Amino acid sequence: MKPLKERNQAAVGLVALVLVSLAIVTAYRADEIPLLNDRTSYAAHFAESAGLAEGNDVQLAGVKVGEVDEVVLDGTHVRATFSLDGVDTSRIGDRTRASIEIKTLLGEKYLALRPEGESAQDPAEPIPVDRTDTPFELQDAFDRLSGTVEDIDTDRLAKSFDVVADTFADTPKPMTEALQGLSALSETVSSRDAQLGKLLSNTNKITGTLRSRNQQLRKVIGDGNSLLTELQNRRQDINQLLVGTRQVSRQLSGVVDDNREQLRPALQELSKVTTVLQRNQNNLDRSLELLAPFTRLGTNVTGNGRWFEGYICGMLPPTINTGTGYEYNSEGCIGDMAAPDQGVGGGR
């Protein structure tokens, strides 16, 4: 096999670029690759979509476990396809119910699952309409509206309008001004439509931010619950510790009270000793200064082993000629070899 240096560098670079691109795409789309994710898709039939849209959350027992992939019309029903991430399929029973719930005050929805049944739900079989619920159904609303309209007596309604018109024909000026004020208020609210829209948009952003921090908030609450549970479990131990501390404090107070007469003379003598030491502080400082040279000398004499060793300056003449050609003590007593505060040699 040829080494890379001998191959076509352009081809090698192209292959490397393709491999790097594939690695990047795989890393960003890993959750969409069946072999790399633990996602299971289900479907449910609803009588109405009720505002459910693609991307809405899927919650199980109040916890987000997936999201809605698609909401389409399927015959006379609405088919909602959703995926669950990392959920044990055995938890989704064959009697599981699905419902569309309102998530925020602004009307955002989510799909809620209530697991039921002894055997697992087949992902290929949609949850039927008789096991799904919606916040409202348009058909029922239209049916109730139709019945309400049919019950209205149009002749009496027309007469009522005529009476209202005749009543307001001779309306005094204050009433007219009140109606004009209401009209002006309505126009003001209408002119502030853009500001109200911006306010609602900002509210939606706040809701989105809180939703994106859902896991962190749940974790904080969970950690707080764990702390409270641990404190509850250790309540007896903490109570015993506090009781023991209280008893020790009581015993110490009793000991002090019982020995107050014995401790008073000792404390008085200790005060006298402290006064004497304070009075002679300068003498003690001078003694410590004079002790320092002696300590250094003792360290030099005994610091080379288990014997005493020193250099005594001035005991012999500066130079001794033995007649053998060798001279002893040729250096004599050199002042640099002894410190001014050392009376013995100053080391070797």
UniProtKB/TrEMBL annotation:
Transmembrane segments: none annotated. InterPro entries: Mce (IPR005693), Mce/MlaD (IPR003399), Mce_C (IPR024516), MlaD_Phospholipid_Transporter (IPR052336). Residues 41-115 form the Mce/MlaD domain. Pfam families: Mce4_CUP1, MlaD. One of its GO terms (cellular component) is extracellular region. Residues 124-305 form the Mammalian cell entry C-terminal domain. Coiled coil: none annotated. PANTHER family: INTERMEMBRANE PHOSPHOLIPID TRANSPORT SYSTEM BINDING PROTEIN MLAD-RELATED, MCE-FAMILY PROTEIN MCE3C. NCBIfam families: Mtu_fam_mce. This is Phospholipid/cholesterol/gamma-HCH transport system substrate-binding protein. It comes from Prauserella isguenensis.
